[in-house]
TrEMBL record:
Family membership noted in the UniProt record: Belongs to the YfgM family.
Protein name: Ancillary SecYEG translocon subunit
PANTHER family named in the record: ANCILLARY SECYEG TRANSLOCON SUBUNIT, UPF0070 PROTEIN YFGM
Residues that span the membrane, as ranges: 21-42
Pfam family of the protein (one): TPR_21
InterPro entries linked to this entry: SecYEG/CpoB_TPR (IPR018704), TPR-like_helical_dom_sf (IPR011990), YfgM (IPR026039)
Organism: Massilia agrisoli
Protein topology in the membrane: Single-pass type II membrane protein
Ancillary SecYEG translocon subunit/Cell division coordinator CpoB TPR domain span: 15-207
Keyword Lyase in annotation: no
């Protein structure tokens, strides 16, 4: 088919343009299409991963109800190895730690809690610090317990951390420091906190006096 002069010029311009920019356009198209495919795959992977982790977590709940600690630990290890970045890994580690504690397996309980301290998100990490410190307190590893409590926690856990520090300090016969810790716990608590009365009792039991809040000016 014959082309007129204007069409030939357009074709020549197109060829020149493609010769100059064709390679770049091709690579940009590959990158865009590749990114789109990767995005779709990632969404599919995330949905599939969440479903699998959820299924394992449900299986763990059944094992917890049956008090089958061995199976609980196997499932926790499986979730941790395959789905470490999911919330299910943190929840299962905390649950497995409680199961191990109830089975008097302190080594496993500490390992599960330490994993959450090192890899968990803020809320789970704060819970794990408190529970790990409690296990260490039971084992009379007082310095290690205080070190664990010294890590960062969310503000809403400040009173619980101070209370637990008080318990550790009492066990070390550091009464003055324990009083300060209990008072700090009370200062961080809401007036209607159900745990407030217990902390007051512990403070008074070691000769402390609950500070009266200052009236607003």
């Amino acid at each position: 088919m014959a082309y007129d002069l204007e069409e030939q010029e357009q074709i020549a311009s197109l060829k020149a343009f493609w010769n100059k920019f064709g390679n770049l356009i091709t690579w940009l198209a590959i990158i865009v299409l590749g990114s789109y495919a990767a995005y779709n795959y990632w969404n599919y992977y995330q949905r599939n991963t969440a479903a699998e982790a959820s299924g394992l977590y449900e299986e763990m709940q059944k094992s917890l109800a049956a008090r089958d600690n061995a199976k609980v630990q196997r499932i926790a290890a499986d979730i941790e190895s395959k789905y470490a970045r999911s919330a299910y890994a943190q929840m299962s580690a905390l649950a497995a730690a409680k199961s191990a504690f109830d089975a008097n397996d302190m080594k496993t309980a500490k390992a599960r809690l330490q994993w959450v301290v090192e890899h968990g998100s803020d809320e789970y990490q704060s819970v794990a610090r408190l529970r790990l410190a409690g296990v260490l307190l039971d084992e009379k590893a007082y310095d290690e317990a205080l070190k664990t409590l010294g890590g960062e926690v969310l503000p809403q856990f400040a009173s619980a951390v101070a209370d637990r520090k008080g318990d550790v300090l009492v066990a070390q016969n550091k009464v003055a420091e324990a009083r300060s810790a209990y008072q700090a716990a009370l200062d961080a608590m809401a007036k209607n906190d159900p745990a407030r009365q217990l902390v007051q009792l512990k403070l008074e039991a070691i000769g402390g006096t609950v500070a009266t809040p200052k009236a607003a000016a």
